[in-house]
Amino acid sequence: MSLRLQARELACERDDRVLFKGLDVTLDAGEILCVEGPNGSGKTTLLKILSGQLGDYTGELHYRGEPLRRCRERFLANLLYLGHSAGVKAGLTALENLAWYQALAGDAFDEAACERALEEIGLAGFEDVPVGKLSAGQARRVALARLALGYRELWILDEPFTAIDKHGVAGLERRLLAHAERGGSVVITTHHALGDMAGIRRLALGEQGHHGEAA
Amino acid sequence: MSLRLQARELACERDDRVLFKGLDVTLDAGEILCVEGPNGSGKTTLLKILSGQLGDYTGELHYRGEPLRRCRERFLANLLYLGHSAGVKAGLTALENLAWYQALAGDAFDEAACERALEEIGLAGFEDVPVGKLSAGQARRVALARLALGYRELWILDEPFTAIDKHGVAGLERRLLAHAERGGSVVITTHHALGDMAGIRRLALGEQGHHGEAA
Amino acid sequence: MSTSDAPAPPPAGLWGAFTATLKRDVTLALRRRGDVLNPLVFYALVITLFPIGISPDPERLALIAPGLLWVAALLAALLSLDTLFRGDFEDGTLEQLLLAPQPLTALVMAKVSVHWLLTGLPLSLMAPLLGAMLALPPGSYMVLALSLALGSASLSLIGAIGAALTVGLARGGALLSLLILPLYIPVLIFGTGAVQAAAMGGAGAYLAILGALLALALMLAPLAIAVSLRISING
Amino acid sequence: MSTSDAPAPPPAGLWGAFTATLKRDVTLALRRRGDVLNPLVFYALVITLFPIGISPDPERLALIAPGLLWVAALLAALLSLDTLFRGDFEDGTLEQLLLAPQPLTALVMAKVSVHWLLTGLPLSLMAPLLGAMLALPPGSYMVLALSLALGSASLSLIGAIGAALTVGLARGGALLSLLILPLYIPVLIFGTGAVQAAAMGGAGAYLAILGALLALALMLAPLAIAVSLRISING
Amino acid sequence: MWAFIHKFGSPKWFYAISARLEPWCWALAALALGVGTLWGLAVAPADYQQGESFRIIYVHVPAALLAQSIFVAMALSGLVFMVWKIKVADMAATVMAPFGAMMTFAALFSGAVWGIPTWGTWWEWDARLTSMLILLFLYLGVIALRGAFARRDSGARAASLLALVGVINIPIIKYSVEWWYTLHQSATFTLTSRPAMPASMWLPLLIMLVGFYSFFTALTLARTRSEIVKREGDKRWVRALVDKEL
Ligand code: HEM
Ligand SMILES: Nc1ncnc2c1ncn2[C@@H]1O[C@H](COP(=O)(O)OP(=O)(O)OP(=O)(O)O)[C@@H](O)[C@H]1O
Ligand SMILES: Nc1ncnc2c1ncn2[C@@H]1O[C@H](COP(=O)(O)OP(=O)(O)OP(=O)(O)O)[C@@H](O)[C@H]1O
Ligand SMILES: [Mg+2]
Ligand SMILES: [Mg+2]
User: Fold this and answer.
1) C175-178 contact pairs (CB < 8 A, 24+)
2) Is residue B85 part of a domain?
3) Is the CB of residue E112 less than 8 Å away from at least one CB of chain D?
4) Is residue B20 domain-shared with residue B125, that is, in the same domain?
5) Where are the transmembrane segments (chains C, D) (predicted)?
6) B74 and B51 together in one domain
7) Is residue D21 part of a domain?
8) Which ligand is nearest to the CA of B39?
């Protein structure tokens, strides 16, 4: 029961290139799984499959022991996914964006909670600025504020550190560890070194299809 | 004459927030200038001003001693700017994208040169794949291949390491140093640590407007 | 500390998500003030183009007025459809909408409702004014507005299927019209039929059929839209 | 090693950049095979809507045919304009286009030419067929095609100004039509005038005026487009 | 039950079965088309009103009927593909669409050619003509939508969905167009109030119909088979098969 997410014999190919094959992934409560690999090795693809967004694979996916297809509703209620694109509307303010996410999760609107989340993520004072007028990193932080808004046990984060400054990265790392300690689980990809974090498991993709160095 | 880019008394405010004021920037041949600062401190804004894209500032800009407005054509012929968005068309292949940039620079199409540039940047074998089918990092590399394509003395790069894996970052750093050694100049922003590179100058923005830590 | 078994969200949550999405889309549209007026201005402009292009003779105009008013309204609604899901697709909020633990059909209905509220409804309110400019007989103004209100709701629903199917494609706009204009034809026929019949006082049957078409669209379209969105996001 | 003083690019370079941009846009359009056909299909569909909405009676249709054919072509051209710069804006290539060491007016002309080649020209070639379906007198087919070819070139040029002005705005589509439809009216008047006059054999003067309008647009529009793009990117 | 459906829909099984069916379909098509053409063009008497031009009926009517049937068949294949994920159904739908569009065009074209001697005009906004034109647009939409997707699977599902939505609408469109036509004006020419045909005219028509339908079946089988080879080219059984044939 405590085995949260389990993938067996996952295989995916794109345009006749095999990205991975026979991949087994298990994720338990309190675990952080860091998916690593060079550009184009299939990290984003794997994360989309694990979050049930891509049907284009073979293999089995289980959430809490049940096949994912059969408990989709419950799975989604416990999932927080952040992708390459931030998922915030440029025309709305940071606060309005969060309010919408809160409602989408089925919760009642709680302005204090939203403001607290924004403040925790370093956006105090920018609550009422339209996201389109924020810098790249600030806009990204609005999306990250969802991590501080309500509890979802499973986080799937695709390069969450993009455009975030050093302080921000350090803060986020602490946040991930805190989530794991609380019993949450995280799947993450990043090209930043996550070296100093204890107790994270690593999954390496695409050893064969290694890229040359970019110079 | 050798003072390539010079900004005097630059000031810019956005929505009544002063981003910087009385800023003096000088850039010489063979220099690398790294603009640093937390999210929202005005790095992108500064780079856009320095590359002549934003007219929304006070102060003076000189290129090789001449006011920028008066030698725009020559300035652009020697400038390579990479912004937050990659500037590659998803519908074209990597090779076609490069070919267009080559023509835009006024050079004749040289397929061998384009292929060499793609190979150097780690995209060998992906020359004829539409960019829309590449991963985030691979698409970014197509834009970066322009660095290896023909010589432009001034590079202005806004977070060029976004989505690039570790090997790629190391390669890019070497490329920057090589460019500087050859007499080129670079202005760069990045949240990656550029610590091990000798001889780069740093410019810190936005000490006052420091963000809280993102957690 | 882990919430060992999160329950499915309560029904109140669904209603909250529905209204929040509705409110979000209305806010976004109103914030770019021009946007709300755009379909209206387009409608008025197209209607004025025709007397210029065809003939300013009121008698001749009156003959073609019901058709013109309906076709132009249809085109105005069509033009605004392309952006229905596109903005959300591009900034990643559509992805998040599909990952919400709420039935997608309901959330999608919120978006379609906003489209109708901000396009179809104002168009039908404005149509009588333009009808007067085209020398439409005064007795048919009410029917014109009613038929447009009913018909444009069907148009929004049907059109949303096409918008959902083409949202991931780079230049969806023109493909979208190819997909949905053929499906619009019944609505167009009964709509113009109603206005033409109104002059003779027998528009009731047409309006009833428009209502029936709307009921059918309301039953089938939400599911089709939801499925289409999943297809588009997957590709 | 530094290239101490890079010379301004040679004129051959400008021509190369022009043709490369032309080729790039044509490649992009042809790669999505449907795209080239889309304005044509839209044109045919809109023309089909009118007899359905107005009346299938050939005599009545013949009266309004020149206006319908022109207004529908204008809408088809308008619809495809929205994407003229939008794609480039979104993926950052427009930014790079503005940073190219080439005169922006020339590069912009390459993009507008592609738009006309892939929209205006096919539309005017297809118009006679649709004219026949609307019972247009056979003598005016040639004039219809010619007037549309000339007129649509002006439309592409004028429309590109609007597209450039609105490219930075999220939902440019409808605002765009608002901005440029009024500018289209002279073209529309002389275009339909030519077709109507063709039945009586005196279309020459109208075609000459359309040609003059095109010459004017060719002179003024490129600069206006370039300036508009700079304004949009700056915001 | 599911196992059976999936076995039924497996490309390999389909490939084997259709290989046996195909020659029969081709033979029937050739026979019916041959007999029908000869009978219709040479043996059947000329129409007393329309003269020789009426012989277009032997192409026109089968093409028009087939065009409508193919859309239904395509939508059904789409449904099977969407619900049971049977790839063969989608392959069949893929190859049906262009042929259906061609038949629609053939009906339109033959009708237009026929219209010149009989009606004096090649186009008329008549109910049937209009709904046929709309059917052509529906076909074009399905084909264009499928082609617009980069991933084949997404394109397939999108096209199936559109075909399904379209097939629900076809009766509505047909019905409404007919109503529209009768409302606006009395028909100048009606297709239905023709003189009753003698048997010597409709028998060859029936034979032609059989010919067109079996031609369609044969063609669909053949092209689905080649589509299987194209899409499943890397599967072992296909390679073995290709090797054997070489
Ligand atoms: C572009 C022009 C035309 C189109 C699109 C067209 C379309 C059709 C269609 C769709 C049908 C099948 C109706 C059904 O579902 O049973 C049909 C049948 C037929 N058409 Fe045409 N038609 C055209 C012109 C003509 C002309 C000019 C004639 C001769 C005067 C003609 C004579 C017939 C006849 C005799 C039938 C068989 C009627 C029946 O079985 O009920 N058609 N046509
Ligand atoms: N279009 C705009 N209109 C108004 N204000 C803006 C606009 N773009 C950015 N700003 C403001 O200017 C400030 C600086 O933005 P800028 O993009 O230069 O930051 P940055 O240093 O590049 O940050 P990051 O590290 O997140 O990329 C931000 O606080 C933002 O609120
Ligand atoms: N839509 C697509 N269609 C076809 N192939 C694709 C598509 N998206 C990605 N691919 C291919 O799949 C491979 C893996 O892509 P993916 O985005 O999963 O890589 P990634 O590991 O996330 O890389 P990055 O570090 O650059 O984000 C790439 O080589 C790419 O060519
Ligand atoms: Mg990725
Ligand atoms: Mg920035």
Assistant:
1) C175/D34, C175/D35, C175/D38, C175/E141, C175/E144, C175/E145, C175/E148, C176/C78, C176/C81, C176/C82, C177/C78, C177/D38, C177/D41, C177/D42, C177/D45, C177/D79, C178/D38, C178/D41, C178/D42, C178/D45, C178/E137, C178/E140, C178/E141, C178/E144
2) no
3) no
4) no
5) 36-55, 61-81, 116-136, 142-167, 174-199, 205-229
6) yes
7) no
8) 2
Q: For residue B135, which atom of ligand 3 is closest to its CA?
A: 17
DSSP D195-234: HHHHTTT--HHHHHHHHHHHHHHHHHHHHHHHHHHHHHHH
| HEC assignment per residue over chain B | CCEEEEEEEEEEEECCEEEEEEEEEEEECCCEEEEECCCCCCHHHHHHHHCCCCCCCEEEEEECCEEHHHHHHHHHHCEEEECCCCCCCCCCEHHHHHHHHHHHCCCCCCHHHHHHHHHHCCCCCCCCCEHHHCCHHHHHHHHHHHHHCCCCCEEEEECCCCCCCHHHHHHHHHHHHHHHHCCCEEEEECCCCCCCCCCEEEEECCCCCCCCCCC
D13 domain-assigned: no
Cα–Cα distance measured from residue E139 to residue E122, given in angstroms and rounded to the nearest whole number:
22
To the question of pTM greater than 0.90 for the whole model, the response is: no
Question: Closest residue (by CA) to atom 40 of ligand 1?
Answer: E61
CA dist., res. B10 & res. B24, Å (int): 6
Separation of E65 CA from ligand 1 center, angstroms? 9
Split into its structural domains, chain C has a count of 1
- Measure CB to CB from residue A77 to each of C8, C20, C24 and give the nearest one: C8
Which residues form the pocket of ligand 3, taking CB atoms under 6 Å from any ligand atom? A 14-15, 19, 37, 39-45; B 133-138, 163, 165; E 150
C-alpha closest to that of B171 among B202, B199, B201, B137: B137
Q: Measure A137 CA to ligand 5 centroid, in angstroms.
A: 7
Domain assignment of residue D210, given as a range: 32-234
CB contacts, 8 Å: C107 with chain A: 104
Q: Could you say which of A124, A150, A176 is where a domain stops?
A: A150
Tell me how far apart the alpha carbons of residues B162 and B165 are, in angstroms, rounded to a whole number.
9
Give the C-alpha separation, C227 to C98, whole Å.
Answer: 11
- Ligand number nearest CA of A158 is 4
What is the structure's pLDDT at E93?
A: 94
Contacts of A154 in chain C (CB under 8 A): none
Contact E147 D135 (CB under 8 A): no
Nearest to C146 by CA among C175, C179, C120, C113: C120
CATH number (domain holding residue A173): 3.40.50.300
Chains that touch E (3 or more CB pairs under 8 A): A, B, C, D
Domain shared by B158 and B140, yes or no: no
ipTM over 0.90: no
| Tens digits of pLDDT across chain D (235 residues) | 344 444 444 445 788 889 999 999 998 888 766 567 778 888 998 899 988 888 888 888 888 888 889 989 988 887 778 778 888 888 889 989 998 888 999 999 999 999 999 999 999 999 999 998 888 888 889 999 999 999 999 999 999 998 898 887 655 455 666 677 788 888 988 999 899 888 777 788 999 999 999 999 999 999 999 999 988 887 5
Taking contacts as CB-CB distances below 8 angstroms, the residues of chain B near A164 are 39, 191, 214
Residues of chain E with pLDDT under 50: 184-189, 195
Q: Which of D34, D55, D132 is the closest to E147 by Cβ?
A: D34
Ligand 4: distance of its center to the CA of E164 in Å? Answer: 35
Ligand 3 centre distance from Cα of residue A206 (Å): 11
* Nearest atom (ligand 1) to Cα of E61: 18
In a domain, B84, yes or no: no
Verify whether ligand 1 is closer than 6 Å to residue E61 (CB atom). yes
Is some CB atom of chain B closer than 8 A to the CB atom of A159?
A: yes
Q: D8 — phi, psi (to 5°)?
A: -60, 145
Asked if residue E127 has its Cβ within 6 Å of ligand 1, the reply is: no
